[in-house]
Design brief:
The complex is a heterotetramer.
Chain B: H1 4-32, H2 37-42, H3 48-57, H4 64-76, H5 90-125, H6 130-143, H7 147-161, H8 180-210, H9 212-219, H10 224-253, H11 256-262, H12 267-276, H13 280-308
Helix pairs in contact in B: 1-13, 5-6, 5-8, 5-10, 5-12, 5-13, 6-8, 7-8, 7-11, 8-10, 8-11, 10-13, 11-12, 12-13
Chain C: E1 5-14, E2 17-27, E3 32-36, H1 43-51, E4 58-65, E5 72-74, H2 88-99, H3 105-122, H4 128-132, H5 141-155, E6 159-163, H6 171-186, E7 190-194, H7 198-204, E8 207-212, E9 215-220, H8 222-227, H9 232-238, E10 255-264, E11 273-281, E12 285-290, H10 296-304, E13 310-316, E14 319-320, H11 330-335, E15 336-339, H12 353-365, H13 369-382, H14 387-390, H15 399-411, E16 417-421, H16 429-444, E17 450-454, H17 458-462, E18 466-471, E19 474-480, H18 481-486, H19 491-506
Parallel strand pairs in C: 3-7, 3-8, 5-6, 6-7, 12-17, 12-18, 15-16, 16-17
Antiparallel strand pairs in C: 1-2, 1-4, 8-9, 10-11, 10-13, 13-14, 18-19
Helix pairs in contact in C: 2-3, 2-5, 3-5, 12-13, 12-15
Chain D: H1 7-26, H2 54-89, H3 93-108, H4 111-121, H5 126-153, H6 156-163, H7 168-179, H8 181-204, H9 216-222, H10 232-260
The complex binds adenosine-5'-triphosphate (2 copies) and magnesium ion (2 copies).
Organism (chain C): Streptomyces gamaensis
Keywords (chain C): ATP-binding, Nucleotide-binding, Transport
Protein name (chain C): ABC transporter ATP-binding protein
């Protein structure tokens, strides 16, 4: 009875699923900071473990639409500020059924004002004081304002459901496809099949999630058969081994937006002509080739390529140095000199800065690159500097806007604060029909495309390697979506 | 020689002061890093409110010296504090990361001493000769190769091309239970110190073997091996002992690269992660550990030097 | 005859200089063959040729035949052949162990110990336990000498080359060591003795070969040689005439250097010098005598600021003298100069001797380098060292030559007090006379140094105005030389006086 | 004959030195970027991780390595030698303690941690990196100097030189250093290599030089992922670094051996 969720993810190669086997998957980790508390999960390894043990009410499909998971269905009222969510029949590993109380407990735990759980900001629209269980398996969520995209909240990163009252995670109990066996932070975690899983028991007998921080270690382990699945490989690794036959390379497209952010409220970028000139300076192909080693596609200064509501109709922007020069001249910014903040927070980041510097030089703009500390980079660029490297994982376009582009957004790195834009967003959230919302999304995106602060030059593939006997790995699942790092649908041939 | 004991005692006392200095230095540097544990925990979602909340929850809003004092007070009760990033006790965390590092270090040193000394003695056997040149050049070559390059090469050949050995220790919780995974890391760890130790020993040996007292020992009919090992070697060892102490220190604290390459979750990994997470209690705990190790090792090396150059009373 | 050492027409030239020029020598088993000759005549070089250890750049012709197997060797400078990082016991046991290899394992240890003890006793180091546990630098010069001798005795070779084996030994021990060498020869070993000590040579040798400037000028049994020396050089060499009867003398002036209640010790050991009082007056010559190991060198080192682990006071002109050279200013450094017992160890092996000698004047008197070299050359020449010699590095000088260079180095400071530690031990009689004359002349001159002569040589002691006798770290007797030697109170002083008398008789 | 012994060292060290010196002049302008880790298209050593021409990067990348390594080693020894000698020559315990204990504190901080921290606090330029590398090298080098000088410093010659009123420098450098020259030269060579290695490892950990800097040591690390696609980007700079360090060490050896056997 789960019409909305795919019965089985599209496999990397066909064949009849086989039961049994023990799969070892290698992820980059965070050492002792790793945790099994799904609300704290921050790293990909944490997320993969959380996904094995727990469920969310909803999760994202490959186009970032929310797909029901523990929720069987959801229905809004007309004002879109009261949503009734009906749970499916599912049980935790200890046999207790998943109930409305568990949902409310989990959400209240996440939004605990004294704590700082990851999904706290995403759950902000929900008024949990007023929300209540209307039956053992129905929850009525009261929202602080109309929210047409409320399902996105249910699918938010880290909004996992834990049993009511849980506060310790040394022997975690969830409703997910695998049961907990053991865990050593920074090293390995072991899980076994949950035969009673509501979405059908996994094919695998057991799953190990092991940690190898270094990419080459993950690759070598994969090549030597120490692991069967290696998460996050580099584009050059992919190219080197794609046709070797020893490993299967899976490219998860559109996983990470790559770009630069310009502070739209400070010189020189407070002048839209300068921002446009910068849009035109970027040679996106060169950036993708050089910084992503070709593993990605070009961007069009908009977030969410391939996602629901993405404005595909807006023509692709190309490098035009003459126009860029003209615009700069018009803005009185000839011989412009700006500082570009960057930091080795992700592969390709610093390279992109270097490439862009060279491109800008051809338009008469001098860019000084300042390499910041990678551990505090995101905080540092939020309010200081004028131009900085940026990247973002997958999330619905709505989430991108609400978190980064509204006057009250907490991580508004472009300082994009427009009353008219905010109004469009509110209007969109209050619009019930999809077509109407779609039109509003397009208007917002057009505005961002012409004068926004995000210079999005590309979308990086997320590269996963598996041993050839691993089947059922989803190929079109950007990182953090439902089918990414999903091991209940995987089997060993 | 009766003054040996007070000397050690005094050195241990200054050692404690030194360790305190190390802790403070490391703390000051870590504190000077941009951002704090809250910022690091927030990562790419640096919501100011969230950061403020984390900061409050971790007591990061209190001044450093207060936190340091509290940590020191805890230390007196044998409590190293709790990790900011994971909320787990630091002592337990270090205790978990120590065995892999110790295993690697002990194994490496056990092989290093005979190999390095042997190489040096062999090369010094005929200083300037063909064997010496070959050995020296090879040693220099290997010494100049950083671990990450050597690691890649050895892994490519021994683990991937001729699949003789497992390339990483990924997912292995007890290294000693799967000794095969230790071979590559130990080889890589060994490579550089063997070469540097060998060169120092060679230099010392060449001088010692040319000294008149070596000539006299040979003249007295002592077999060449005895002259080499019992007479010349001790005189060549003082700098080598210093170097060895440094190497052990490095093995215990600085094998970040090898741990990363072979996915061995030891102290180096903890260190890098702790710095990245601005996890001060862990960094302090590590600094304490490093400081104490260094004090003990330096003391050992000085004691050896004291014994090997008895004429030099100044060493005490 | 196969056991004989045979040297025929040996020519050695080093660095273009002919050091040996047609040396013939035969040393028979069971006999002591002595090689005598002035300092620098080639004795050590001959000895090294027997060992096959001439420097790599030496050009050698002629024939050297030595029986197979190792050759026992007592080098002239014992300090350099003792491994600084090995205790005396280990050095001896290493050798002894080779001798007991055919014994059953269980008995080897005891046998080794027994042999080591026997060798030590034979080398006159009876206090075995304490000596064995010491490092070489913790032994006195004479003790080191005997340790090396013990090594040679332990070796059990068929040939022993002993280069100045009795330097640094006091008269009593010297006689006993000579006795041991004779006993060695009686065991059928060929002993080649290179020595300046004519008393020992005459008492011990069966055959004496006289070298002069690298040539053998004559040879024969000692009695014959002493009775009828053919070569004028030999006559001069063998003439045991006393240096000079005290020479010219200045009236002793005020006290320059005074040590009061000096108690010196080494790290972690009982004091080696106890409550010593000593005065040195301007223009005076003081002989410091005593058994080997009695603390003479230590006393001198305390005075000269090289040993600062002591209690008590040292004053110069009534003002306290800093215990360490590091704290002495230029003037006070220059005022008290020390000539090292082991000259070879006191020179930098990398630099020419002349440069090193001249530096004293440059550093301590502020003389211009050119002028300092001239002064140094002049002084060295007076000590019998020509310019060609001193332009070389220390390695190319003989033991006696270096000893004189060391003396010149100290003298160049124009010291007020000169502490001479066994500076004549490595010199032949004529050279010794020459050096002593040089010293006394300088001392008698205006502003000349007061001399403290640490010596085992009765001649040198005789030269002194006053004698102080050290025994076991205590000054047991002190007074005018004539009185002390005429009416010795202490057994050691008595032995010294006897030895003096006997050499005096030797002179006839 | 005597010249010949310098030949291997001179050749090995000469090529990298020459490239480092002349490279920046020969490099010319940056052409357009290609795809990373490919060969051909006018890139005769292929492209690097950022699609740049490897040969051009090689030409540009020597200067920083060579200057940092040489300057840091020289600087480290300029500090460590007097410190180590002073510690070996002094008899004053307090002086020795004040000289060596602070260094021991530095020594007790693992050098990579120190670099990691300092470089993160203040991203260093070339000069900063040099200072940093020198800083972490000094304590170790000073200890080695002290250990090897202690024996020579306790010889009677030193006492004789002191009674001669010889200056500290002459004793320390003129005698003690000379006696320990062989060990020190071996150590110096090792330090030079150590600094090269340090720069490379710092790059591995993501500090020190900018990640896309033209720098042989950085290139080796950054181009590692493409080793199986386009080996030259790793192999060439690695060989140059190797040649530099082996060559200088061989030169040291050759010079010393000559001094020891004057003919
Ligand atoms: N570093 C040391 N540690 C312990 N004992 C020492 C040390 N140096 C010398 N001694 C001992 O001190 C005593 C006195 O030594 P010193 O060198 O003063 O004797 P000396 O009278 O000069 O003898 P000689 O005539 O043999 O040169 C000797 O017994 C010697 O073994
Ligand atoms: N390596 C050398 N190079 C040049 N000349 C040397 C060398 N070694 C020794 N000589 C010279 O050879 C001569 C003989 O030296 P040798 O050491 O044999 O003399 P000796 O008879 O033992 O003198 P002493 O009684 O002073 O020890 C000396 O004049 C010395 O300067
Ligand atoms: Mg001689
Ligand atoms: Mg003495």
């Amino acid at each position: 009875g789960c019409s909305n969720s795919p019965a089985s993810a599209p496999g990397s190669s066909g064949g009849q699923p086989k039961r049994g086997g023990h799969l070892r998957a290698a992820f980059a980790g965070g050492g002792a900071a790793e945790t099994l508390d799904p609300h704290l999960s921050n790293l990909f390894a944490d997320a993969a473990r959380a996904k094995a043990l727990y469920d969310k009410l909803a999760d994202y499909g490959s186009d970032m639409t929310a797909r029901p998971r523990l929720a069987e269905r959801w229905e809004p009222n007309d004002a879109l500020d009261r949503w009734t969510v009906t749970l499916r029949e599912a049980e935790f590993h200890d046999g207790r059924p998943v109930s409305a109380a568990d949902i409310l407990y989990s959400y209240r735990r996440i939004t605990d004002p004294k704590k700082a759980y990851r999904a706290k900001a995403s759950l902000e629209p929900v008024d949990l004081e007023a929300s209540r269980a209307t039956g053992p398996r129905t929850v009525e969520f009261r929202l602080k304002r109309p929210t047409a995209e409320f399902p996105n909240v249910l699918a938010a990163f880290g909004a996992y459901i834990v049993p009511d009252g849980t506060d310790r995670f040394d022997k975690p109990v969830g409703s997910g496809p695998f049961r907990f066996v053991s865990f050593t932070p920074g090293r390995s975690a072991r899980f076994t099949r949950n035969d009673a899983y509501w979405d059908g028991a996994p094919h695998l007998d057991a799953l190990d999630i092991v940690v190898a921080d270094e990419e080459s270690a993950r690759l070598n382990a994969l090549l030597a058969g120490q692991v069967d699945y290696a998460h996050e490989l580099s584009p050059s690794t992919a190219r080197a081994h794609e046709h070797g036959g020893r490993v299967t390379i899976v490219r998860l497209r559109n996983s990470a937006m790559q770009g630069f952010v310009m502070k739209t409220d400070r010189p020189p970028f407070d002048d839209p002509r300068v921002r446009q000139a910068f849009f035109l300076i970027a040679d996106r192909e060169e950036l993708v080739k050089g910084a992503l080693s070709g593993a990605g596609t070009v961007g069009n200064d908009l977030f969410g390529k391939g996602y629901e509501y993405y404005a595909d109709d807006i023509p692709q922007r190309r490098q035009d140095l003459d126009r860029a020069r003209t615009l700069l001249k018009a803005a009185g910014a000839e011989g412009l000199r700006v500082t570009l903040d960057t930091s080795p927070v992700a592969p390709g980041f610093v390279e992109a800065a270097g490439i862009f510097r060279d491109q800008a030089a051809r338009a008469g703009v001098t860019i000084d690159i300042r390499t910041g500390n990678k551990d505090s980079y995101w905080k540092d660029i939020l309010d200081s500097g004028t131009l900085a490297g940026y990247r973002s994982g997958a999330m619905p376009i709505e989430a991108h806007i609400s978190q980064r582009l509204l006057s009250g957004s907490t991580t508004n790195a472009t300082h994009w604060r427009r009353k008219d834009f905010d109004a469009l967003y509110q209007q969109m959230q209050s619009t019930k029909d999809t077509a109407g919302r779609s039109a509003l999304y397009e208007r917002m995106q057009r505005q961002l495309h012409t004068e926004g602060g995000f210079l999005v030059w590309g979308f990086a593939d997320w590269i996963v390697g598996t041993s050839p006997r691993v089947r059922g790995v989803a190929t079109d699942a950007p990182a953090n979506t439902l089918d990414w790092a999903r091991f209940d649908t995987v089997w060993l041939a | 020689m009766t003054s040996f004991r007070p000397w050690i005692l005094r050195r241990l006392l200054t050692g404690l002061a030194q360790t305190a200095a190390v802790v403070v230095l490391v703390l000051a540097l870590t504190e000077a890093l941009p951002g704090d544990a809250a910022v690091a925990l927030a990562g790419d979602d640096p919501d100011p409110a969230r950061i403020a909340a984390i900061r409050q929850a971790l007591h990061l809003d209190r001044p450093v010296h207060e936190r340091l004092a509290q940590w020191a007070a805890g230390l007196l009760h044998g409590d190293l504090g709790t990790s900011l990033a994971s909320g787990r006790p630091v002592a337990g965390l270090l205790a978990e990361a120590f065995p892999p590092t110790l295993t690697l270090a002990v194994l490496t040193v056990t092989l290093l001493v005979p190999a390095g000394v042997g190489l040096g003695v062999l090369a010094a056997h005929r200083a300037g000769g063909l064997l010496d040149r070959l050995l020296s050049t090879a040693a220099l070559g290997v010494y100049a190769v950083p671990e990450f390059v050597l690691g890649v090469l050895l892994t490519a050949v021994l683990a991937l091309w001729l699949p003789l050995l497992p390339p990483t220790a990924v997912g292995v919780d007890n290294l000693l239970a799967r000794p095969a995974v230790l071979v590559l890391p130990v080889l890589v760890l060994l490579a550089r110190p063997v070469c540097s130790l060998g060169r120092l020993v060679r230099a010392g040996m060449a001088d010692a073997l040319a000294a008149p007292w070596s000539v006299h020992a040979r003249r007295c009919g002592l077999p060449p091996a005895r002259v080499r090992f019992a007479h010349a070697l001790p005189n060549a060892l003082a700098p080598a002992a210093q170097h060895l102490a440094r190497t052990v220190d490095w093995l215990l604290c600085g094998v970040v690269v090898v741990e990363a390459l072979f996915a061995v979750p030891g102290l180096g990994t903890v260190l890098v992660n702790a710095v990245a997470a601005r996890d001060l209690p862990v960094v302090q705990g590590l600094a304490l550990l490093f400081g104490l190790t260094a004090v003990v090792l330096n003391l050992g090396a000085d004691a050896v030097a004291y014994r090997l150059a008895p004429r030099a009373e100044a060493a005490a | 005859m196969t056991d004989a050492v045979r040297v025929r027409a040996l020519r050695v030239s080093i660095g273009g200089r002919t050091v040996l020029d047609g040396v013939d020598l035969t040393a028979l088993p069971g006999r002591v063959t002595a090689l005598v000759g002035p300092s620098g005549s080639g004795k050590t070089t001959t000895g090294r040729a027997l060992l096959g250890e001439l420097p790599p750049d030496a050009r050698v012709s002629g024939e050297v035949r030595v029986p197979r197997g190792p050759v026992g060797y007592v080098p002239q400078h014992p300090a350099s052949v003792l491994n600084p990082a090995r205790r005396a016991g280990a050095l001896l046991r290493d050798i002894a162990r080779r001798q007991v290899r055919d014994l059953p394992r269980a008995r080897r240890r005891a046998a080794v110990d027994e042999r080591v003890r026997a060798a030590l006793a034979a080398a006159q180091l009876p206090d075995a336990t304490s000596a064995l546990s010491r490092y070489p630098h913790q032994l006195s010069g004479g003790q080191q000498q005997r340790l090396v001798l013990a090594q040679a005795l332990l070796l059990g070779t068929r040939v022993v080359v002993a280069d100045e084996p009795t330097t640094g030994l006091d008269v009593l021990i010297k006689q006993r060591v000579a006795g041991e060498l004779a006993a060695l020869a009686r065991q059928g070993i060929a002993v080649v003795l290179l020595s300046h000590d004519l008393a020992v040579v005459r008492a011990l040798a069966d055959e004496v070969v006289v070298l002069r400037a690298g040539r053998v000028v004559e040879s024969g049994p000692p009695d014959e040689l002493w009775a009828r020396p053919r070569h004028p050089g030999t006559r001069e060499l063998l003439d045991a005439e006393r240096a000079e009867t005290r020479g010219a003398r200045a009236e002793p002036g005020p006290v320059v250097l005074r040590a009061h209640g000096l108690t010196a010790y080494h790290r972690g050991a009982p004091p080696v010098l106890r409550d010593a009082d000593l005065e040195v007056r301007a223009g005076e010559r003081l002989a410091l005598v005593g058994r080997s190991g009695s603390g003479k060198t230590t006393l001198a080192r305390c005075l000269s600021g090289l040993h600062s682990r002591y209690g008590g006071t040292v004053t110069l002109d009534g003002r306290p003298l800093p215990p360490s050279v590091r704290h002495r200013d230029r003037e006070r450094l220059a005022a008290v100069q020390y000539v090292f017992q082991d000259a070879r160890a006191a020179f930098d092996e990398h630099r020419p001797v002349l440069d090193q000698v001249a530096r004293t004047a440059v550093r301590l008197r502020g003389t211009a380098p050119e002028r300092a070299r001239e002064e140094a050359l002049e002084l060295l020449a007076r000590a019998g060292l020509p310019e060609t010699l001193v332009r070389r590095r220390p390695g190319a000088l003989s033991g006696g030559e270096l000893q004189r260079a060391a003396l010149a180095r100290a003298l160049l400071a124009r010291p007020r007090v000169l502490l001479c530690d066994e500076i004549t031990s490595g010199l032949d009689a004529p050279t010794r006379r020459r050096v002593l004359r040089l010293l006394t002349d300088l001392a008698a001159g205006p502003g000349g140094p007061a001399l403290v002569l640490i010596t085992h040589d009765p001649d040198a002691a005789w030269l002194a105005d006053r004698i102080a006798v050290l025994d076991g770290g205590t000054i047991v007797e002190q007074g005018p030389a004539a009185r002390v030697l005429a009416a010795p109170a202490h057994p050691f002083t008595r032995a010294l006086a006897d030895a003096y008398a006997s050499t005096g008789e030797g002179r006839g | 004959m005597s010249k010949a012994r310098y030949l291997p060292g001179a050749l090995l060290a000469g090529i990298p030195l020459l490239l480092a010196l002349a490279g920046p002049w020969l490099a010319g302008d940056a052409g357009p970027r290609g795809t990373s880790f490919t060969g051909g298209e006018g890139h005769w050593l292929g492209t690097d991780f950022a699609g740049r021409d490897v040969w051009r990067q090689v030409l540009l990348g020597g200067q920083s390595v060579v200057t940092v390594a040489l300057a840091a080693t020289a600087l480290a020894y300029a500090v460590a030698l007097p410190l180590g000698l002073a510690a070996a020559l002094t008899h004053r315990t307090w002086l020795e303690e004040t000289l060596t204990r602070p260094l021991d504190v530095l020594l007790a901080v693992p050098s990579l941690l120190l670099i990691l921290l300092v470089a993160s606090v203040h991203p260093p330029g070339r000069a900063g990196l040099t200072l940093l590398a020198a800083l972490v090298t000094v304590p170790d080098a000073a200890r080695t100097v002290r250990a090897s000088a202690t024996e020579a410093a306790s010889r009677p010659v030193v006492e004789a030189l002191r009674t001669q009123g010889e200056s500290w420098w002459r004793i320390a450098v003129g005698y003690v250093t000379r006696c320990t020259a062989r060990t020190l030269a071996a150590d110096l060579g090792i330090r030079l290599t150590g600094v090269l290695y340090l720069v490379a490892t710092a790059a591995f950990l993501g500090v020190g030089a900018a990640p896309d800097a033209a720098d042989w040591a950085v290139m080796v690390d950054r181009n590692r992922p493409g080793l199986f696609l386009q080996p030259w980007a790793v192999v060439v700079p690695a060989l140059l670094v190797l040649g530099l360090s082996v060559g200088t060490n061989l030169l040291c050896d050759a010079a010393l051996d000559r001094k020891d056997h004057p003919k």
